[in-house]
Amino acid sequence: MADTITLSAEPRSKTGKGPARQLRREDKIPAVIYGHGRDSEALAVLRADLDKTLVAAGGGTTVIHLKIGGKKVRTLIRELQRHPTGRNVTHVDFLEIHAGEKLTVRIPIHLEGSPFGVRTHGGILDQTLRELEIRVLPKDLPPHVEVDVTELSVGDSIHVRDLVVADVEVLDNPDRTVCTVVPPRVEAEPEVVVEEEEEGAEDAVPELIRKPRAEGDEEGTGPEE
User: Fold this and answer.
1) Closest Cα to residue 151, out of 183, 108, 109, 119?
2) Which of 109, 120, 96 is closest to 148 using CA atoms?
3) What's the rounded Cα separation, in Å, for the pair 112 and 73?
4) Rounded (10°) CA dihedral 90, 44, 26, 61
5) Which backbone phi and psi does 195 adopt, to 5 degrees?
6) Which of 176, 149, 145, 141 is nearest to 160 (CA)?
7) pLDDT-based confidence at 223, cuts 50/70/90?
8) Using CA atoms, how far apart are residues 76 and 78, in angstroms rounded to an integer?
9) Reported pTM
10) What sign results for the dihedral spanned by CA atoms 50, 61, 102, 34?
11) Element (DSSP H or E) covering residue 20
């Protein structure tokens, strides 16, 4: 079951790029909450509080009790927008949820352990699926899926059908590959190119280039130094 975290938010009346930039200068993050038939509502959260929330969530899917004024709402973080270079969070979308309604969400897939084929044969663990789409009640929502890969040899794979996740309906194709151990990459040896010498190259004599002798000059007499 997912952990529960509490985060405070405040309504905001001004929206758009200008007010959003002003909020960020005040160390606040613009946010929005929607879902469950409610109208979208613009919010702001303190950057420090949001950072603590993300650390506590540990990269997993976590139920957040969002305090808006005197009211507490159960939510999930639906989307985080980050600055393309600094990677700081610039906007947050919250999705309101209710206890008796199933959610369709994607949860992270965490690989646990070092595969046998990596340890003994120099293989490489390649993870091709990093999130699993599921339908689940909020009370049964796992923060992530743990997959033990210690027994995988070179050429072995784990598929969606091999995952064990209690109390959820898995929506991804059962045949999708989650991860595989591939053979070590062999670097191609650099090609050595041997240039063949032209015929008669050993007997070649450098060509002497000098001014032509002016008419009247004696042979072998050059310009005065």
Assistant:
1) 119
2) 109
3) 34
4) -50
5) -85, 130
6) 176
7) very low
8) 6
9) 0.70
10) positive
11) helix 17-25
